[in-house]
Amino acid sequence: MELLTPSVGTLFWTGLTFVLLLFILKKMAWGPVLQMLDEREKKIQESLEKADAAQKETEAAVAKNLEIMEQAKKEAQSLLSQSKKTAEATREELTKRAEAEATKIVDKAKKDIAQEREKAVEELRNQAAELSVAIASKLIGKTLSKDDHKDIIESSLKQMVEAN
Amino acid sequence: MIATLNKIMPLVGGGGEGEGHQEQLGADFIMHHIQDHVLWEFHPFGYDLSITKHVLMMWIVSGLMLFLFSLAFRRPKLVPKGRLANFFEFIILYLEEETMKPYLGHDSRKYAPYLLTAFFFVLFCNLGGLVPGSATATGNIGVTTGLALLTFSMVQIAGIKNNGFVGYFKGLIPPGLPAFILPIMVPVEIVGLFTKHVALAIRLFANMVAGHVVIFALLMIIFSFKSWGVAGITLAGILFVSLLEILIGLIQAYIFTILSAVFIGMAAHQDH
Q1: Model pTM?
Q2: Domain total for chain B?
Q3: Does residue B51 belong to the interface with chain A, where contact is any CB pair within 8 Å?
Q4: Which residues of chain B lie closer than 8 angstroms to A30, CB-CB?
Q5: What ipTM is given for this predicted complex?
Q6: B59-64 — which CB contacts under 8 Å span 24+ positions?
Q7: In angstroms, what separates the C-alpha of A21 from chain B's closest C-alpha?
């Protein structure tokens, strides 16, 4: 049967047509396309990896930022508390010093006053003695010896002091 | 189709013939549409290399393939662009994943051009035959035998390249067989070397012819019954079979490609 016998002509033309088509398409289509598909696959892979790495980097940066902020906060807090402490200490010291100064001044004033008073008392005593000598000599009309004076004055002063 | 009908009307419409004669005419009509026709006689050196309708169809299909692929892949882009390129890229990737990588492994890139060309050539021939007025080149045993011979050559080249000339033919017989089986196994393997490819040719040819026989037989029913009423039913049948033919055209192209890949893979990697 003609239908089931391959003829030489069709065999020849099939082979020739197919081989020519194969070479042209290999040059024109399959080569470039397969290469491009490989490149595309690689590119997608690379892009995904890059995106992954970028995300990880971002996450790390954010974490680091947070850490830095935390540290800064802590530092600021410690600085604040330290300065507070220093201020407190300075104030206390100043107060103490002022108190000490004041005490010193008061003490000196007290001492001065005491000194002044003693001086005044001494003077008063001397004057009183002189006055009383003068008064007594006027009254008696005679001058007493120095020892007499002294005795009299001492005893009278004693009387005055006791009376006081 | 209408031209075909007009041509056939006087053939089958004559009233006086007997049933047997009419059946003969129907068979002739079917054969007429399945067989090849010489368009241009060409006999160089005593060989019949006439250009036939099927050869012309192969050239038309090849031209169409070159046109479409040059349109799609003139400048392949990394970023997918264009529906045509996307469509073909999808098919190429599918074929690579499904038919080449499982059987050829690392060698798949080496044989991809042949397998891709075979797939698209067979597919375009199969589908081109569905266009009214055209012919199915893959419905010609000469064409399918030619394609099978090409696959056969690829298989032998792959086998010899990967295993060496002696190694390849030695490897055809499974190792570790007892010596007394060899007289049986050697002829079996030698026959098997060819039958695989003969089956490849006949499978494609028979599938393509069968669909067309069914379509033309359904068409002949109209003339056998000489009734326009039957025409509606048979035309629905023809439409169904034609749609089925599209599916079969795709499936047969795929089967041809995957079997070629399997044969090449088997020859290249004989150990499994």
Answers
A1: 0.72
A2: 1
A3: yes
A4: 92, 112-113, 116-117
A5: 0.83
A6: B59/A17, B60/B128, B60/B134, B61/B121, B61/B124, B61/B125, B61/B128, B61/B137, B62/A17, B62/A20, B62/A21, B62/B121, B64/B124, B64/B128
A7: 7
